[in-house]
Specification:
Layout lengths: L2 H26 L4 H24 L8 H27 L2 H7 L3 H11 L10 H22 L4 E3 L5 H4 L5 H28 L3 H23 L11 H29 L1 H5 L2 H15 L3 E2 H47 L1 H4 L1
Antiparallel strand pairs: 1-2
Helix pairs in contact: 1-10, 1-12, 2-9, 2-10, 3-8, 3-9, 4-12, 4-13, 5-6, 5-8, 6-8, 6-13, 9-10
């Protein structure tokens, strides 16, 4: 059914916002980004092992070394993406973190142009829309990051958890870098899935690589044993949620939708995450500043400019395919006509 990918991406955005809130609360109790990511990825790996064996035991494609290199590359990108994203969240708030991640389609467009995966037509309306949209995205991110402004909302019991020791500029810049890496990850994931179309196996290796890299990084950098502790209970609950919904559910849904609909179908739902994060922030009493709200609005406008430009290209490509499909039939009819053959 055509509606299933849409419902799946809405659920994935809900899971993403919940992950941001759960991670923020867990790290406020003393967990570090490395230990949180390690436990979360380890839980995901333990969940994905039986699922992968059960669902792909009879139709498992061969694991060539090229595929293993691709899996490791995705794991390394995911490691950097998750660690930088959690660091940015630690210095800012779930709303700002979710808002800055909307830069992904703009960065994806820039990377596609740099890698010459897409030709720029200077006079094309779609190219102008994507270029202006990317600039608007960057301006919105800078506004949300560099301009905090006065407080316009935020009184509630969880306010101390969600806004402790926040440094807007550092958090925003780290999340921007995370968004850039996320764009590289989405493009790389699309290439790997074309050659190895088994989402669960891909996510299993992905989670396993991240867990190993985080374990090594934690053993080298962490000296506080408390960061490894699973108490208080809120830490354990946050880790279970992150491993199950933040990683397994969200990443598998994203991979499946990339395979079915393409990378841009996945990123088109990201503004919904900003709306959900804004509602969740108001409900839980997070302090909302003018800069975050204005930057969010600018980013959403830029986002839809980029997607509108991409939609124009999709329509043009579909029309081109339809005309190409019609031409051979017409050509065959001409060749079969005896008058023409004479």
């Amino acid at each position: 059914m055509e509606v299933i990918p849409y419902m799946a991406m809405i659920a994935a955005q809900l899971a993403q916002v919940g992950l941001a809130v759960a991670a923020k609360e867990a790290m406020s109790t003393g967990m570090t980004t490395f230990t949180f990511t390690f436990y979360s990825s380890a839980i995901s790996t333990l969940i994905l092992i039986p699922l992968s064996i059960f669902l792909h035991r009879s139709a498992l494609p061969p694991l060539w070394p090229t595929f293993l290199y691709g899996f490791f590359l995705l794991g390394l990108l995911g490691f950097l993406m998750q660690v930088l994203g959690l660091l940015g969240l630690q210095y800012s708030s779930p709303l700002l973190s979710t808002t800055i991640m909307q830069l992904s389609p703009g960065f994806t467009f820039i990377l596609i142009v740099i890698l010459r995966m897409e030709k720029l037509e200077n006079k094309s309306l779609s190219t102008v829309a994507k270029t202006i949209g990317t600039l608007v995205l960057i301006i919105g991110a800078l506004v949300a990051t560099l301009y905090k402004g006065p407080q316009i909302f935020g009184i509630g019991p969880l306010n101390s958890i969600l806004t402790t020791h926040s440094d807007w500029v550092i958090g925003g810049l780290l999340t921007m870098i995370c968004s850039l890496i996320a764009s590289v990850f989405i493009i790389s994931q699309a290439f790997v899935l074309k050659k190895y179309p088994t989402e669960l196996i891909l996510m299993l290796f992905y989670s396993c690589c991240i867990a190993i890299l985080c374990a090594i990084s934690s053993l080298v950098t962490e000296r506080d044993r408390n960061s490894w502790s699973l108490s208080p209970r809120s830490r354990l609950m946050a880790l279970i949620y992150s491993g199950l919904f933040g990683n397994v559910f969200q990443l598998c849904i994203g991979s499946w939708c990339i395979k079915k609909k393409g990378p841009f179908f996945v990123v088109v739902f990201q503004p919904l995450g900003t709306v959900i994060a804004l509602g969740a922030s108001m409900f839980m009493g997070e302090i909302i500043y003018v800069g975050s709200l204005v930057g969010s609005i600018i980013i959403v406008v830029g986002f839809f400019l980029v997607i509108w430009g991409k939609a124009k290209e999709w329509n043009k490509e579909e029309k081109g395919l339809e005309s190409n499909n019609k031409m051979p039939l017409l050509h065959d009819k001409v060749n079969d006509d005896p008058k023409v053959n004479v």
